[in-house]
Design brief:
By secondary structure, the chain is mostly beta strands. Helices cover 4% and strands 52% of the residues. The chain has 2 helices and 9 strands. Strand 2 and strand 3 form a beta hairpin. The chain is elongated and about 95 Å long.
Length: 280
């Protein structure tokens, strides 16, 4: 038997849900009728992704090539959760509504010019280029209770009696780069590579947006030396040493801008009066 008069099933032939005795919980579940909650709850979370790339390469002169590459990545995600109102507990809960939508659009455009030339035992390979990248993320959402009807699933103004929270924001960042690389080989045994790149990120504040990152490397292919060339047990052997500087832009947006909030504290900037010296 269930706690609802006249209904001794989880759900009868008329579509009426039974419940445990009002005020009592199903053991270990925290719900009055799990089947009813699962069947009536509506959850919809579709997502779409699109990744495209296009490239064009042209030979301008023997050994000299120009290449452009464009990539676009977009994604859309939405989430809707609706729990209808019911009378299966002492304090009949209002319906709950939660919806959020987010979109991401990112593009990357790279342009390079390369030159390769072999003369005798010498090989030179030079690459230079520029690139630009931008990422935009948008998100909005609403959460509330008390829909005017279980048949009206909407977070629009006037449909929910209680709005718990609303949110909406846009995040935008970009990155610009110039780079170059020189590789020199002698007899395919001794290899020198030097690279340099200059990156500018919108994530950093004025005067700190740009950084220069060089690197150097040398390599020795021992397998090509006479004392290892005919050793079949070793297919390839190379010693390599390198040095370089790397950057990292994975910091929160506008982290360089410190917020000011009211209230006294000696541990942060609260209590500061604009135009005066900070005192504790």
């Amino acid at each position: 038997m269930t706690g609802r008069p006249g209904v001794d099933q989880i759900k009868d032939e008329n579509g009426i849900y039974g419940y445990y005795t009002l005020g009592q919980q199903a053991t270990g579940s925290g719900q009055t009728n799990l089947y009813a909650d699962l069947e009536q709850r509506q959850v919809d979370r579709p997502s779409n992704y699109l990744l495209t790339t296009a490239a064009l390469e042209a030979t301008l002169l023997p050994g000299l090539k120009a290449k452009t590459n464009l990539g676009v990545n977009t994604s859309n995600f939405s989430s809707l959760t609706f729990n209808p109102a019911n009378d299966r507990s002492l304090n009949a809960p209002l319906s709950s509504f939660d919806q959020s939508v987010s979109t991401t659009a990112e593009w990357l455009w790279e342009n390079t010019l390369s030159y390769a030339k072999t003369f005798g035992q010498h090989t030179v390979d030079v690459v230079g280029g520029i690139s630009a990248q931008q990422n935009k993320f948008r998100m909005s959402g609403v959460n509330g209770n008390g829909s005017i009807s279980n048949d009206v699933i909407s977070g629009s103004n006037g449909n929910l009696t209680v709005i718990n929270s609303t949110t909406g924001f846009t995040e935008l960042w970009s990155l610009a780069s110039q780079f170059g690389r020189l590789t020199y080989k002698f007899a395919d045994k001794y290899i020198f590579t030097g690279t340099i790149r200059r990156d500018g990120s919108s994530r950093f504040g004025d005067g700190q947006k740009w950084g220069i990152f060089p690197s150097l490397s040398v390599a020795w292919r021992l397998k090509e030396e006479g004392f290892l060339h005919h050793v079949d047990a070793i297919s390839d052997l190379k010693l390599r040493a390198s040095w370089g500087k790397a950057g990292n832009q994975d910091v929160p947006l506008f982290a360089y801008q410190g917020p000011y909030t009211p209230g006294p504290s000696a541990n942060d900037n609260r209590g500061y009066v604009f135009g005066e010296e900070k005192a504790y």
